[in-house]
Each structure stands twice: as structure tokens, then as C-alpha cells.
Design brief:
single chain, 576 residues, alpha/beta, Glucose Oxidase, domain 1, 3 domains, 6-stranded mixed β-sheet, 21 helices, 14 strands, globular, binds FE2/S2 (inorganic) cluster, ILV_EDD_N, DiOHA_6PGluconate_deHydtase_CS, dihydroxy-acid dehydratase activity, EC 4.2.1.9
């Protein structure tokens, strides 16, 4: 049923003929607003993650104007609210430390202001989950506007992919096969426009996931940031949110178990970033859907990787993906692996949204019969080293490590790790397993992207480009290699990873999803008795609160008190 003006949330601020509402109206008039702006029309928050230090979101100040144009065209009133920029490359020690803080910021910005719906502008890695987690917890109708990927990189006529090629050329520089001039050429050519990383890294994965979930105009996630279609999409999103408010199309009607399975299936088919696992779990749980690691593994086992985009694919980048038909075409190829009856923000079903879509280049978006990788790009491993799970991306590693056992070389910190990987004469073979611990949610802190441990110089010198690496950290979605990540529970809180020693034999069996250390329960118990917990990372400030409330990777690294089932729902603010 359509809402009336009296039903609007913002009317509680502006409609009554009383002292407090007069204050709201007079202060709105102070900004140049009139009765026309608040009476009889929804007020739409435009949540913007633009900043001068966010290269991926550099165009969002402009795109907010296109969103506002759309809102005005449809008879709403836009109100832009800035939030954190979530700038992946700039925030230290890691933007992951701030994802939940950002989600709180979004939720409370929506709750505390006189707004009826929201348009969320973001795309750089943590911004998408933070925006969606916050908006879902608030529960107002919202539509997500993905920032879109930047143009393909270029150096000396070669296509460059964000992150992926930086790692590749860095290994070559450390191996001495390229010099400073080539390295500077890569630096100047790898990021040629605004927009997010243009590999299928965390940003592109998360934008695609939101799209598959039905949270943006279908296909919006594939539009490159500099394409004129991106502006048109932003304006169309502004027009659409106004109707979503009148129709009361709240997120619980879109984020169902079926649409969550679609989102996971899309993630797997894109060859998604390992980070997506943490964010998928966190976002689903905010929507009251108890998604777990094993659910992801089950869908992963039956979903081939069909997006031939680096780093899981070889030749192509997000710009190529768009020209091939983008996410709509990928969903057409997935066919009955998706539930096409799910609702999207447009008010139509996913099936209606992709009815006209076509795959224009079947080497970029492969048919199911000719995948890039035969099953999902992510595998969940368990065993005595990771009782609560660990993840690996088999599609982007040397297949020789699918089943492997080898002696551990253990580093307790990133500083200790650097000494090992920079020592050309460190005694090691490609059979060794390099372990970094104390880099998890509490230990990092914030679970930094240290999990793609750079290849040790000693092995690069021998001509090797991959080895098995193991940590409780995350890695960038643009990374690749035989890296086992997100080991839970983490070492810092006494997970089994804390107990292993250099020389212990690590056993990995990806087809059978196992990760063990060759030690008996008695040996592990003996070591545990002698384990001393490290000193807390923080004694005050936000980090202190973070350490007290952060959950482990298998639960999505949300704060415990933000979970849907934690206490009674937050009430609407009193207006008096
Ligand atoms: Fe922003 Fe990669 S740094 S998307």
C-alpha cells in the first residue's frame, strides 16, 4: 500500500504545529528551504563517501549531484550526508579496522536525521559492506549506487590490473628482472582514472554482490566510473528511491534467504575476493540471515568461476566485463543456479531485470560449460589448525599446492616476517610453509591485508613464484597465490595457530577441505599450557572498544553488540 505524507518519517519532524517542529522548519529555512521542500514529499539522504583522500571515490561529489537531480525529478528532496571515505589505500593500519565504525555512522546518521530513504554512494572495498550493514540495520528503503571501476591500466602497451600487476612487477623488481624506470612506468599507468580497482578484487566483488542481491539498479555494478552511463545510472537511482519510499520497499523485502544465495552464487562465479566471505556473512547477519562459512563452501562447490577477469582469470579487466554485457550477462549464464523470482530495488524481479541481457563476448563471460575454474573460487578449510575455519582461493594459485605437506617457518609479526622474506640466503625450499600469525581481527589489529605474504627473495632467486603461505590475516582481493587466510580462531587470542613452531609439518588438502598441523592433541595441549597471551593492543580509544567487541572472521568480524539478535531493536528517536 502506498504511503501518505502523514506516514513519512520526516513528517514527524516537519508537520506538527508545535514548538519543536517550528524549530526544525525555521532551521531548514535558514538553509534556503521552504514549505515546498518538506511538505508532501520524502526527504532522501544521499550518503556520500567522497573525500579528498579517496581516489576511488573522487567522482562521487559529482555523482551525488546526479543522484539529487533524479530525486528532484521524481518529487523528493535530497539531503546529502557525508560519512567516512573508507579509502582502502590510505587508511592505516587497515580500513577493516573502520568498517564497523562506518556502519555505525551510516545507521546513526539515518536514524538521527529527518529522512525517509537513502541513496548510498560507495564502492572502495569496505565502503559497500559498511554502507549496507548500517542501512540494513536502520531498515529504511535504500538504493546502492556503486562507484564503478576505473579504466584499464596501461604500461608500454600492456594492460595492467590494479593490485594484481603491482604484486607481479614487485616480485620481478625484487628478483632484479626489472629496474626503477619500468617500476615508475607501472606506477604512472596503473591507475588512470577515478573509480575502484578494475580487477575482480574486493571492490568489484562487493559491488557485484550488492547487485546480485538486488540492492542497486541491476547491472549498475559493472558500469565503469568514467562512462557517461554512470551518471545516468546515478540519476535513475535518485528517481527510483522516491518511489521506493512511497511503496515502503524496505530492505527486508529484498534481502531474503533466496536473494542471499543469489549474492553468494554471483560472488563465486565472479572468482571473488576472499574478503567477500567476511563481508557477505556480516551483511547477511545484519539482515537476520544466519549465513555461515559452510553455506558458502556448499554454494562454492557447485558454482564455476565464469568471469574471466584477473586475478582468477587471465586476460581481462572490469572494463572488458562491462563491454561483454556485465553482471546482467553473467547472471544470464548462471541460469537456474539463481532464483530469478527475487525482488530488486526496481520493484521488479531479478528475472524481469535480466530478461533482455546478452553475453556479447563468451571468452570474457564464459558459459557454464567452459568455465575459468570448475568450481567456486573459494574453499573453506578446517582441521586442528583452524577449528573455526580458514579460506583459500584455489582458482588463483599454483595447482601443485592443492595437496601439500611441508615444514613451517613461523613469523610472530610482520617485522619478523620481513626479515625472513628479505633474506636471500634464508634456508628454504618451495615445500616450506610460511606462517604469519598475530595478524587477525584483534592481533593485526583489524585483520590487515598481510596474508598475501610477498614471495621470499630466497625462492625468487631460485625462480619460484608461488609457495604455500598461511595466516590469520586477510589479503587484498586483487592478490593471488597459495595463501591460506582468515585462520580462526586467530593466534592472538590463543587459537591453535599460536601453538605451532618452526619445523612443525603443516598438511593441506584442498579437495578434502582440511588444514592440520602434524601434532597430537596431547602435544597441542602441552604447548597450550605454556602459552602466554600477548599484551592488549589498545588501552584506550576506539581500538579498545574494537578489541573488546570484534568477532572472529568466521562470524564476519562484526561487533557483537551490532548483531540483529543482540537485545531489543533500537527505538526511533523521540522528537521533543
Ligand atoms: Fe579502492 Fe582498490 S583501493 S577499490
Amino acid at each position: 500500500m502506498k504511503k501518505s505524507y502523514e506516514d513519512l518519517r520526516s513528517a514527524r519532524w516537519f508537520a506538527p504545529d508545535d514548538l519543536r517542529s517550528m524549530g526544525h522548519r525555521s532551521r531548514a529555512m535558514q538553509m534556503g528551504w521552504t514549505d515546498e521542500d518538506w511538505h508532501g514529499k520524502p526527504i532522501i539522504a544521499v550518503i556520500n563517501t567522497w573525500s579528498d583522500l579517496s581516489p576511488c571515490h573522487h567522482h562521487l561529489r559529482d555523482r551525488a549531484e546526479w543522484v539529487k537531480r533524479g530525486i528532484l525529478q521524481a518529487g523528493g528532496t535530497p539531503a546529502e550526508l557525508p560519512v567516512s571515505d573508507f579509502a582502502e589505500q590510505m587508511l592505516k593500519p587497515t580500513s577493516m579496522l573502520y568498517r564497523n565504525l562506518g556502519a555505525i555512522e551510516v545507521e546513526e546518521a539515518l536514524r538521527s536525521h529527518p529522512v525517509d530513504g537513502a541513496v548510498l554512494l560507495g564502492g572502495c572495498d569496505k565502503s559497500t559492506p559498511a554502507l549496507i550493514m548500517g542501512a540494513v540495520s536502520m531498515g529504511l528503503p535504500f538504493i546502492y549506487v556503486p562507484a564503478g571501476a576505473m579504466l584499464r591500466g596501461n604500461y608500454a602497451g600492456e594492460k595492467l590490473g590494479s593490485g594484481t600487476d603491482v604484486w607481479k612487477y614487485w616480485d620481478e623488481r625484487r628478483a632484479g628482472t626489472i629496474g626503477k624506470a619500468e617500476w615508475d612506468g607501472v606506477q604512472g599507468g596503473i591507475a588512470r582514472s577515478y573509480g575502484t580497482c578494475m580487477t575482480m578484487g574486493t571492490a568489484s566483488t562487493m559491488m557485484s554482490i550488492a547487485d546480485g542481491w538486488g540492492l542497486c539498479l541491476t547491472g549498475a555494478s559493472s558500469i565503469p566510473a568514467p562512462d557517461a552511463a554512470h551518471k545516468r545510472m546515478a540519476a535513475a537511482s535518485g528517481r527510483r528511491i522516491v518511489d521506493m519510499v512511497w511503496d515502503d520497499l524496505t530492505p527486508d523485502k529484498i534481502m531474503t534467504e533466496a536473494s542471499t544465495r543469489n549474492a553468494v552464487t554471483v560472488a563465486m562465479a565472479t572468482g571473488c575476493s576472499t574478503n567477500a566471505i567476511i563481508h557477505l556473512i556480516a551483511m547477511a547477519r545484519r539482515a537476520g540471515i544466519p549465513l555461515g562459512l559452510d553455506d558458502l563452501d556448499v554454494i562454492g562447490r557447485t558454482t564455476p568461476v565464469i568471469a574471466n577477469i584477473r586475478p582468477s582469470g587471465k586476460d581481462y579487466l572490469m572494463e572488458d566485463f562491462f563491454y561483454a554485457g556485465g553482471l546482467r550477462a553473467l547472471m544470464v549464464e548462471l541460469g537456474d543456479k539463481l532464483d530469478l523470482s527475487t525482488l530488486t530495488v526496481s520493484g521488479k524481479t531479478m528475472g524481469e531485470e535480466i530478461a533482455e541481457a546478452k553475453n556479447y563476448q563468451d571468452d570474457v563471460i564464459r558459459p557454464l560449460a567452459n568455465p575459468v575454474y570448475h568450481e567456486g573460487s573459494l574453499a573453506v578449510l578446517r582441521g586442528n589448525l583452524a577449528p573455526d575455519g580458514a579460506v583459500i582461493k584455489p582458482a588463483a594459485m599454483d595447482p601443485r599446492y592443492q595437496t601439500h605437506s611441508g615444514p613451517a617457518i613461523v613469523a610472530d609479526s610482520y617485522a619478523a616476517l620481513k626479515e625472513i622474506i628479505n633474506d636471500e640466503d634464508y634456508p628454504m625450499t618451495p615445500d616450506h610453509v610460511l606462517v604469519l600469525r598475530n595478524a587477525g581481527p584483534q592481533g593485526g589489529p583489524g585483520m590487515p591485508e598481510w596474508g598475501m605474504i610477498p614471495m621470499p627473495k630466497a625462492l625468487l632467486k631460485q625462480g619460484h613464484r608461488d609457495m604455500l603461505r598461511l595466516s590469520d590475516a586477510r589479503m587484498s582481493g586483487t592478490s593471488y597465490g597459495a595463501c591460506i587466510l582468515h585462520v580462526a580462531p586467530e593466534a592472538f587470542i590463543g587459537g591453535p595457530l599460536a601453538l605451532i613452531e618452526t619445523g612443525d609439518v603443516i598438511e593441506v588438502d584442498i579437495p578434502n577441505r582440511s588444514l592440520n598441523v602434524r601434532l597430537t592433541d596431547e602435544e597441542l595441549a602441552q604447548r597450550r599450557a605454556g602459552w602466554v597471551a600477548p599484551a592488549p593492543r589498545y588501552e584506550r580509544g576506539y581500538g579498545f572498544m574494537f578489541s573488546k567487541h570484534i568477532e572472529q572472521a568466521d562470524k564476519g568480524c562484526d561487533f557483537d553488540f551490532l548483531r540483529t539478535e543482540f537485545g531489543a531493536p533500537v527505538p526511533e528517536p523521540e522528537i521533543n
